[in-house]
Specification:
mainly alpha, two-stranded antiparallel ribbon, Phage protein, Phage_gp6-like_head-tail
């Protein structure tokens, strides 16, 4: 599967889930903005992991970062907010809530990456 096909698959999967979770219709005016949030989440995660192609297993991470961006939309720059008994606290970075998940994935990449190793036969 090519990088572009993989990205489209992850992005489409996340968008479909976000629509269900937030009860959005296909023609909702927020969809273009949500697609930008998804792209940003994919880019941030790829950059953090040092990969050019995001594994579809990480779509849950993309979805969490995207949902957090949607929730934080009206509170940009705010650390926390309380309204009518509901309290929200926002992380310093988008990846904080999924840091342990990304670190586990990154460690599994390192454990399975044997490229570049030097072997000698003496």
């Amino acid at each position: 599967m090519s990088e572009e096909t993989q990205k489209i698959t992850v992005n489409d999967s996340v968008l479909a889930n976000i629509k269900v979770v937030n009860d959005l219709e296909d023609n909702d005016p927020r969809i273009p903005r949500i697609e930008i949030y998804i792209e940003n989440a994919v880019d941030e995660i790829e950059l953090y992991l040092g990969v050019d192609d995001l594994d579809s297993k990480l779509s849950v991470a993309v979805q969490k970062v995207t949902q957090n961006a949607i929730t934080r939309e009206n509170y940009e720059g705010t650390k926390s907010v309380s309204e009518e008994g509901m309290s929200l606290t926002f992380s310093d970075t988008d990846l904080d809530p999924i840091q342990s998940l990304l670190d586990s994935y990154k460690n599994s990449l390192a454990d399975n990456d044997h490229r570049g190793g030097v072997f000698t036969f003496d």
